[in-house]
């Protein structure tokens, strides 16, 4: 284990599994265009491992499992890491909610990753869509499928029983949907991965999940700065440039990104900033040598404005779309 990776704080899931609180996001650089230059991700994973990252947030939808797997297996072969030191999260996409297909879908992901098991498997969204990943109707809306996330959850549990994944969880589930899962689960989700940053703190959902033994993972922790097309005139603009974030960065002699990442670590929220560039990966990883005061944490919390950068407009008509009700 490299000295830098030993710095990473581990959290304990409700099943006893220990997981690094900080990981690397792997969603692509270019907004919403699948299949962009994925060799970038191969290089990104290798440099992240050299820096000390051990937790990688992946998804079938990201279309890059093969490159993530190649990089990880290369580093295992080189003797830099052992499989058991790496924590892979992967996600079941919306078109694979049919309970009959879930186990085989995870097996397909494992083949691409060239791994025998993953560490955490999530239902990516509560909505279920038809066969192709983003099939749309004449109004450009996703086409809804018939499957219930409750049945899908039962199939996720089978994945644990078969040893294909150590843990299972959910992503983008609102409070009612988490309650639904808790009502039928034999295996409780370990995390709910949701958008989270000072403009969207989701404290009610956080408290509810934590009371039920479920941790939050923060996606878009830097405010997904490459998603300007999602921003409107009414928003405050780019989170990384927020005056309060800048002020605290100057105070603690850290960068704006480091303040946003440390904010989540101190709230006990797993955090998965994405960067393909070694210099920024290093910056985002170097968050262990300072502590934000309670007062400054409160100032960051006070920036909340329930602002979502990830809304998925073509899904807003669907019955299980999570953001139509207040969380
Ligand atoms: N469950 C879900 O539905 C979702 C999950 N996710 C997951 O969460 C991860 C993180 O979210 P994401 O949307 O990528 O957004 P982030 O908030 O992590 O922002 C990533 C962007 O910020 C840039 N960046 C990274 N570090 C810095 C830095 N130190 N200073 C300035 N800019 C920086 C990156 O560019 P560069 O690469 O050039 O450094 C990239 O463009 C995803 O990669 C994915 O794994 C994301 C969305 C939805
Ligand atoms: O994980 C994800 C990455 O971002 C996409 C939107 O741009 C989301 O649809 C997806 O859930």
Biggest sheet: strands, sense, closure?
8 strands, parallel
> What's the rounded overall pLDDT mean?
92
The rough form would be described as: globular
Main sheet: strand order? 3-4-5-6-7-8-9-10
Ranges with pLDDT <50 over ≥5 residues? none
The tally of strands reads: 10
Radius of gyration: 19 Å
Keywords: NADP, Oxidoreductase
GO molecular function: oxidoreductase activity
Pfam family, one: Aldo_ket_red
Protein name: Aldose reductase-like isoform X1
Keywords:
327 residues, eight-stranded parallel sheet, two-stranded antiparallel sheet, binds 1,5-anhydro-D-fructose, oxidoreductase activity, oxidoreductase, Aldose reductase-like isoform X1, AKR, NADP
Overall description:
It contains 10 helices and 10 strands. α3 (99-113) packs across α4 and α7 (243-252) packs across α8 (256-266). The protein has helices spanning 39-51, 65-77, 99-113, 149-161, 175-184, 203-211, 243-252, 256-266, 278-285, 294-301, and strands at 10-12, 18-20, 24-25, 55-57, 87-92, 118-123, 165-171, 191-195, 215-219, 270-271. The strands form 2 sheets. An 8-stranded parallel beta sheet has the order 3-4-5-6-7-8-9-10. Strands 1-2 form a two-stranded antiparallel ribbon. The mean pLDDT is 92. The protein is an alpha/beta fold and 327 residues long. The structure holds NADPH dihydro-nicotinamide-adenine-dinucleotide phosphate and 1,5-anhydro-D-fructose. 1,5-anhydro-D-fructose binds next to loops.
């Amino acid at each position: 284990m490299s000295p830098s990776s030993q710095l990473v704080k581990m959290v304990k899931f409700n099943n006893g599994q220990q997981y690094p609180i900080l990981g690397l996001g792997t969603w692509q650089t270019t907004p919403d265009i699948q299949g962009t230059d994925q060799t970038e991700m191969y290089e990104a994973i290798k440099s992240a491992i050299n820096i000390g990252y051990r937790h990688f947030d992946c998804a079938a939808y990201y279309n890059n499992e093969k490159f993530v797997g190649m990089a990880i297996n290369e580093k295992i072969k080189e003797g830099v890491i052992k499989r058991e030191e790496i924590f892979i999260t992967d996600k079941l996409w919306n078109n694979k909610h049919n309970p009959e297909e879930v186990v085989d879908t995870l097996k397909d992901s494992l083949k691409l990753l060239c791994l025998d098991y993953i560490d955490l498997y999530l239902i990516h969204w509560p909505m279920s869509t038809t066969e192709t990943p983003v099939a749309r109707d004449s109004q450009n809306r996703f086409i809804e499928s018939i499957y219930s996330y409750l049945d899908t959850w039962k199939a996720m549990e089978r994945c644990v029983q078969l040893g294909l994944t150590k843990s299972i969880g959910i992503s983008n589930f609102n409070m009612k949907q988490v309650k639904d899962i808790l009502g039928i689960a034999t295996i409780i989700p370990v995390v709910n991965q949701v958008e989270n940053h000072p403009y969207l703190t989701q404290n009610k959902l956080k408290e509810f999940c934590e009371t039920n033994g479920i941790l939050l993972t923060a996606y878009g922790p830097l405010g997904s700065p490459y998603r300007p097309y999602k921003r409107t005139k009414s928003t405050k603009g780019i989170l990384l440039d927020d005056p309060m974030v800048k002020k605290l960065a100057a105070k603690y002699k850290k960068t704006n990104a480091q303040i946003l990442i440390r904010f989540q670590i101190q709230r006990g929220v797993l955090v998965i900033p994405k960067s393909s560039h070694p210099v920024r990966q290093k910056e985002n990883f170097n968050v262990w040598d300072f502590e934000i005061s309670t007062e400054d944490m409160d100032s960051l919390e006070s920036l909340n404005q329930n602002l979502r950068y990830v809304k998925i407009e073509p899904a807003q008509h669907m019955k299980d779309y999570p953001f139509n009700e207040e969380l």
